[in-house]
Amino acid sequence: MPFHSRIHVELRDLTRRLILEYRGALPPGQVMVAVQDANRILGRSVVPERRVPACEGIARRVLSERVAAIAVEQALQRTA
């Protein structure tokens, strides 16, 4: 399998795994966009073998921040 195709498959698998992990906390579309944005941000700046782990790290950070923001917003609504 060509390297580009392998990366595509690995990113798709990462997206599916994160969708399952964040199920109930974030819509699947937000997870998919986080992975796509991470891949786009990296551009050509990462060694190909590190691309998927780097995308995962960036996507997890973004998703964790979104979940935290939702939790804060919900807590503020309860106290209002």
What does it look like?
- With 80 residues, the protein is an all-alpha fold.
- Helix content is 79%, strand content 0%.
- The chain is built from three helices and no strands.
- The protein has helices at residues 3-21, 28-42, 51-79.
- Helix 1 runs antiparallel to helix 2, helix 1 (3-21) runs parallel beside helix 3 (51-79) and helix 2 (28-42) crosses helix 3 (51-79).
- The termini are far apart.
- The mean pLDDT is 93.
Low-confidence stretches: none
**How many DSSP H or I helices?**
3
Question: What is the residue-averaged pLDDT?
Answer: 93
- How large is the share of residues in beta strands? under 5%
Q: Which series of helices and strands comes N to C?
A: HHH
Largest sheet: none
Global outline: elongated
**What's the total count of β strands?**
0
The percent range for helix content is over 70%
**Computed CA radius of gyration, to the nearest angstrom:** 15 Å
Distance between the termini: 56 Å
Structural category: mainly alpha
